[in-house]
Structures are given as C-alpha cells and as structure tokens.
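From the methods appendix. Each design record in this collection lists the tokenized structure first, followed by the designed amino acid sequence. Records were kept in a plain field format so they could be parsed without special tools. The example shown here is representative of the layout used throughout.

RECORD:
FOLD TOKENS (160 positions):
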C-alpha cells in the first residue's frame, strides 16, 4: 500500500484543497454590531428631527401620521440598505465590521453580491424570531455562523 499525500488530512500539510474559511469570533461580531448600532442611531436622530420639524410646523392628522410612520419606514429601509449595500461592496463590511477587521463572504471566501447580501440581512428576521438565539449561534457553531449566515451560505470572517 503506497502512501498518498492528503490521505491523512491535517497531518501531512499537503492537502489538495485550501482550508475553508472560519468565521470571526462572537465578541468581534458583537462589537461591530454595537458600532453599527451607534451609527444607525445617529442617522435615525437626524431623520427623526426632520419629521419632528414637519410635525411642529403643521399640526394635523396627516402630519401626525407622517411624523409617526415616516421615521419607522425611512429608518427601516435605510438600515437594510446600509448593511446590504456595504456588505456587497468592495469593503464587504459595514463600518462596524470594517473597524473590527471583519468582512462578509460566501462559504468559499468570496465576496457576496447584492442579492445574497439582501437575503442575508432579511434572514436576520429568523435570528430574531428565535428570541435572539440565532444571533448567539456563533458561540457553538463549528464555522461560527449565526442562523442567518447558515441559511444563506455566508460567513463573517477576519479580513486578511
């Protein structure tokens, strides 16, 4: 019986395939999320003040509705596009992830497109529906993936 390189993966050092990317730590992801939360809250304060100005200038049922629903709709769309656009851009990361040295990739370590980033961010709803347990999955997942990463085939990894 002849010895073949790669017959004992991980022991010979001569594997035929590169190591699969492994996800970033839960702590780094959490700090990145806090940074992004602060950025989004600052943007939200600006939007809210614009709608409040509208309300104070003309108080009626229409402006009350606009001042109530407007920030929710504008803020929700902005938050979604913030993540989707930045994670599918050449940065592959939101400012929080970039500061923490992280980026979002597919399971092969490649950049994700706008569609994949959209599905990933919409799938965060699944992580929320589990009462947040989906966000904690990187603590025990072998590839450190949250639920929304697993269902969309993405990883958050350390940037090179």
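DESIGN:
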């Amino acid at each position: 019986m002849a010895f073949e390189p790669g017959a004992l993966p991980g022991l010979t050092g001569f594997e035929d395939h590169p190591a699969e990317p492994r996800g970033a730590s839960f702590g780094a992801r959490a700090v990145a999320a806090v940074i992004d939360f602060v950025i989004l809250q600052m943007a939200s304060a600006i939007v809210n003040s614009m709608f409040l100005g509208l309300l104070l200038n003309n108080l009626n049922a229409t402006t009350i509705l606009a001042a109530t629903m407007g920030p929710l709709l504008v803020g929700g769309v902005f938050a979604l596009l913030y993540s989707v656009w930045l994670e599918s851009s050449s940065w592959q990361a939101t400012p929080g992830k970039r500061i923490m040295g992280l980026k979002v990739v597919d399971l092969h370590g490649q950049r994700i497109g706008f569609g994949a980033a959209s599905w990933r961010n919409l799938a965060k709803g699944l992580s929320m529906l589990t009462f947040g347990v989906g966000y904690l999955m990187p603590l025990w997942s072998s590839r450190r993936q949250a639920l929304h990463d697993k269902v969309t085939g993405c990883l958050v990894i350390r940037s090179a």
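APPENDIX NOTE: Helices lie at 26-57, 61-88, 95-99, 114-122, 124-129, 133-136, 147-152.
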